[in-house]
Amino acid sequence: MPDVYVLIFAPGGAAARAALEPLGAGRALAEGLGGKLAGVVVGAGAEEVAAEARRRADAVIHVTGDHLRAYEADAFTAAAEHALKGRDAAAVLTLADAVGREVAPRLAARLGGSPLTEVSGAQVEDGRPVFTRPVFGGKAVAKLVGRRAPVVVTVKAGAFEAPAESGAEAPLETIQAPAVEPAVEVLAREAAPAAGVPLDAAPVVVSGGRGVGGPEPFQKELKELAEALGGAVGASLAAVDAGWVPQSYQVGQTGTAVAPTVYIAVGISGASQHLAGISGAKHVVAINKDKDAPIFRVAEVGLVGEWKPIVDALIRAVKAGK
Ligand SMILES: Cc1cc2nc3c(=O)[nH]c(=O)nc-3n(C[C@H](O)[C@H](O)[C@H](O)COP(=O)(O)OP(=O)(O)OC[C@H]3O[C@@H](n4cnc5c(N)ncnc54)[C@H](O)[C@@H]3O)c2cc1C
Questions:
Q1: How is domain 3-176 classified at the architecture level of CATH?
Q2: pTM (2 d.p.)
Q3: Which of 274, 278, 290, 308 to mutate to test the pocket of ligand 1 (most atoms within 8 A of CB)?
Q4: Where would you tag: which of 4, 54, 183, 239 has the fewest CB atoms within 10 A of its CB?
C-alpha cells in the first residue's frame, strides 16, 4: 500500500507552530488509502519535534546533519529527497509557509512527482488522493489530483488540525543527510529590528484597513491591542497602498495567509481578496461603522461603530485582564 508522508521542517531545531497540522490531512489520506502515515522531520537538533511527531504518526524519520542547522533551500530539499527516495509515497504534504513553499516544488521535480500548492482539503476518491483549494479569492473551489506520484502538496495553515496524541510512540528512524553544495551562498543573517510576533505564526492578529484613516493607529491603538494580546499587527491592501504600513503587513490573497486563533479586523470592509487570507482564522472579530460591511458575514463577533472608542475599550478590558 502506498504511504503518506508529512514533511516537518525544523531549522534551528524548532518547527513552525502549524507544522504538525498537515499530519491531520495525512491521517485522513492514509486511512483512505489503507497505508501508513509517516512524519519526516528535517533539521539538526530537532529531537523534540520528532518526539511530537512520534505521538501523532505511525512512523517518523528524522533527517539530520550539521549542515541542516540553519535553513537553506537546496540542503533541506536534498535532505527530504534523501529520506523519501525509494519509498512508496502516494502523497507528501507540508505546511504552506515560507520553507514549504520553497522546498515542495523543488522536491516534486526531483522525485518526478506532481507539485500542488495551498490546498485546504484532502480526501481519497477512487483510491486516489484528491485535494481542494479555494480559487478566485475564495469564490470557487478547485478540485485537483496529481497525475504523477508522489503528489507533493503544500497545505494552508489553519486548514487542518494536528491529530491528537495517540498515547503511543511511533518507531523512529534517524538518518544522516549527505551534505550538498547549495546553489546560493548566504553571506549574512541579520535579525530584523523589533520583529515582534511573525504574522503567519501569531495566535492573534489585529489588522487595520482604510477605515482607520491613516498610519498613526498602526503605531498606536492597533499595536497596543496586538501587544496586549500577544499578537501581531496586519493590514488590508488599501492600508498598504496608502503607504501607511509596509507590504509585509498585508493580509490576503496577495499578502500573507494568516491562521490565528483570533483575527480582529478594524475598519476593513471584507473584500474577497482580503477574506482569502483569513480563512484559517478560528474566530473573526470585526469592527466597522457600516453594519452592512461584508466582513460581518464571516465575523463571529461584530461590533458596529467608530473603531477608535471600541479599540480603546478593548485595550482597557484586555489590560484589566477581562
Ligand atoms: C488581484 C487583487 C488582489 C488583491 N489582494 C488583496 C489582499 O491580499 N489583501 C487585501 O486586503 N486586499 C486585496 N485586494 C484589494 C481588495 O479588493 C480591497 O480593495 C481591499 O481589501 C479594501 O481594503 P479595506 O477593507 O481596508 O478598504 P475599504 O474597502 O475601503 O473598507 C474600509 C472599511 O472601513 C469602514 N470604516 C470607515 N471609517 C470607519 C471608522 N471610522 N470606523 C470603523 N469603520 C470604518 C468602512 O465602512 C469600510 O467597510 C486585492 C484586489 C485585487 C484586484
A1: 3-Layer(aba) Sandwich (3.40)
A2: 0.73
A3: 274
A4: 183
Q: Are strands 172-176 and 59-64 parallel, antiparallel or unpaired?
A: parallel
Q: Measured between alpha carbons, how far is 90 from 151 in angstroms, rounded to an integer?
A: 7
> How many angstroms does the Cα of residue 272 sit away from the middle of ligand 1?
9
Domain with CATH 3.40.50.1220 in the chain: 199-319
Residue 36, all three cell numbers: 501508513
Residue 210: phi and psi, rounded to 5, are -55, -30
* Pocket-testing residue among 268, 284, 292, 296, ligand 1, by greatest number of atoms within 8 A of Cβ: 268
What is the signed CA dihedral for 69, 75, 77, 82, rounded to 10 degrees? -90
Ligand 1 centroid from CA 288, angstroms: 11
